[in-house]
Specification:
CATH topology of the largest domain: TIM Barrel
Distance between the termini: 45 Å
CATH superfamily of the largest domain: Aldolase class I
Bound molecules: 3-methyl-2-oxobutanoic acid, zinc ion
CATH architecture of the largest domain: Alpha-Beta Barrel
Strand order of the largest sheet: 2-3-4-5-6-7-8-9
Structural class: alpha/beta
Helix content: 40-55%
Number of helices: 17
């Protein structure tokens, strides 16, 4: 095997990642993520599953028609309607790919598809041929490959390549494989499939046993040339292989893998933050590469070693993955240009109008808080992407509460040019009172399923970041809010979730919204 292989990064944040419960994105959000993936220099973006919904179709079509710099891929089952719909969405992309999949394992054949092996091969061939009639770049996935009999898997893969597949993706759909198992599967395909050199072998591993990255790396070691992954490892159930982890494993252990990717690693942290803020799926603090603690050293012995020589306890430099070298950046007297510069370095491309809004909030924050950290600036910028016209925002609130009195809240919300105020005595505490007042004013009732508060940066005056998860008419919506005042941050997060519900209900605002 060549000593310096370039492994293709196939990002499926917008397709498999979006299948994380509650992580659905609207069109504008998908475009934002797709542009960030292009800036990150991924090779392929799986933009959606066009036949699944109008929202998915439009997202794939818009990304394919408007963005440049990566292959744009759309998913399809092995039937004509799916494949033609995928092509309809992809046809304006300079580099389109159709990805067809069909389950091959015994359990899927018997219980889900009720098809025998011959029928599976026949359908796979027909689907690949139809896709190849639309474009040259066709990927075939035998779904649940890791649980498929190896002889049959070799037969299906050979048939798909003969029919025109240029990439054969080997999914561990249910996260069942181990690294040794996945390595064996890929080696077997390379040894036993006579036409295997005509296609790129791809890995697609799920994380149900926490081994998605290790399994993908084992496949790469055995000769796979593409890895399918998502930002922050989001995806169906326990998620997919994490892009940032697999990329940095290859780069940091180049001595072992002799392989690299085209990824601009300094964009990893900004991209991770963007996806987290758009989907509402928080990154755990100790998450490898992009977690807030990934480069934090607590023990005295480690700190001493770090001061003497960072390589004693760090195998990567934080700045190499996009953490800012110096955390303390701006203060009360900083101007708009410095803010724009910092926001750009953190991965936020603000329009003039957005910058003005962020700058006003930055000044207000600088009045309340002495030190403004990168985390604060990222939080202010993220808020801007939520603040679209026609959405509810908090104008003012006042709450009286205590251990012996029922909370009483006066809240004013604004949407467009309308302001509404309610005064209520209600709730178990100030946050509950705030939520009830928001429901009253907006007329949207929800069930709160999760509520979390954490500090964005450090110190007593740190901003609070609140995430909420609410249920409305059977659908889960997430919201996020940031403020130095934790009750206000809670209200902002709750309102953010309500705004998402309103967007879904009002086609005038976002006709493309799918969930
Ligand atoms: O996990 C899986 O099998 C998939 C396929 C559609 C590739 O996501
Ligand atoms: Zn998957």
């Amino acid at each position: 095997m060549s000593t310096n292989r370039i492994i293709k990064i196939f990002d499926t944040t917008l397709r498999d990642g979006e299948q994380s419960p509650g992580a659905s994105m609207n069109l504008a959000e998908k475009m934002e993520v797709a542009q960030a993936l292009i800036d990150l220099k991924v090779d392929v973006i799986e933009a959606g599953f066009p036949i699944a919904s109008v929202g998915d179709f439009e997202a794939v079509r818009e990304i394919a028609s408007n963005l440049r710099g990566a292959t744009i891929c759309g998913l399809a089952r092995c039937n004509d309607a799916d494949i033609d719909r995928a092509w309809e969405a992809l046809k304006h992309a300079p580099s389109p790919r159709i990805h067809v999949f069909l389950a091959t394992s015994a359990i899927h054949r018997e219980f889900k598809l009720r098809m025998d092996k011959d029928e599976i091969i026949r359908r796979a061939i027909a689907a690949v041929k139809r896709a190849a009639g639309h474009c040259d770049d066709v990927e075939f996935s035998p779904e649940d490959a890791a649980r498929t009999e190896i002889d049959f898997l070799c037969n299906v893969v050979e048939a798909a390549i003969d029919a025109g597949a240029t990439t054969v993706n080997i999914p561990d759909t249910v996260g069942y494989a181990t690294p040794a198992h996945m390595g064996h599967v890929i080696r077997s395909l390379r040894e036993r499939v006579p036409n295997i050199d005509r296609a790129v072998i791809s890995m697609h591993c799920h994380d149900d046993l926490g081994m998605a990255v290790a399994n993908s790396l084992a496949g790469i070691e055995a000769g796979a040339g593409q890895v399918e992954c998502t930002i922050n490892g989001i995806g169906e159930r326990a998620g997919n292989c994490s892009l940032e982890e697999v990329v940095m494993a290859l780069r940091t252990r180049h001595d072992f893998y002799h392989a690299d990717t085209r990824i601009d690693a300094q964009r990893l942290v900004p991209t991770s933050r963007l996806v987290s803020s758009i989907t509402g799926l928080q990154v755990q603090r100790n998450k490898a590469i992009v977690g807030r603690n990934a480069f934090a050293h607590e023990s005295g012995i480690h700190q001493d070693g770090m001061l003497k020589e960072p390589r004693t306890y760090e195998i990567m430099r934080p700045e190499d993955v996009g953490f800012a070298r110096t955390d303390l950046v701006l203060g009360k007297h900083s101007g708009r240009a410095a803010l724009a510069d910092r926001a750009k370095a953190l991965g936020f491309h603000l329009t003039g109008e957005q910058l003005q809004m962020v700058f006003e909030r930055f000044k207000a924050l600088a009045d309340k808080k002495k030190d403004i950290y990168d985390g604060d600036i990222a939080a202010l910028c993220e808020q801007e992407f939520w603040n679209e016209a026609d959405q509810w925002s908090i104008v003012s609130y006042a709450i009286e509460c205590g251990s012996t009195v029922k909370p009483s809240v006066t809240l004013t919300l604004r949407r467009g040019s309308t302001e509404r105020t309610e005064t209520l005595t209600c709730g178990d505490g100030p946050v509950d009172a705030m939520f009830l007042a928001i429901e009253k004013i907006t007329g949207v009732s929800v069930t709160c399923r999760d509520f979390r508060v954490q500090a964005v940066t450090v110190g007593k005056d740190a901003q609070a970041e609140v995430s909420v998860e609410v249920m409305h008419e059977g659908i889960v919506y997430r919201g996020r809010g940031v403020s130095t005042d934790s009750v206000e941050a809670s209200g902002m997060a709750f309102l953010n979730a309500i705004n998402r519900i309103e967007i879904g209900r009002n086609p005038r605002l976002h006709p493309q919204h799918s969930a």
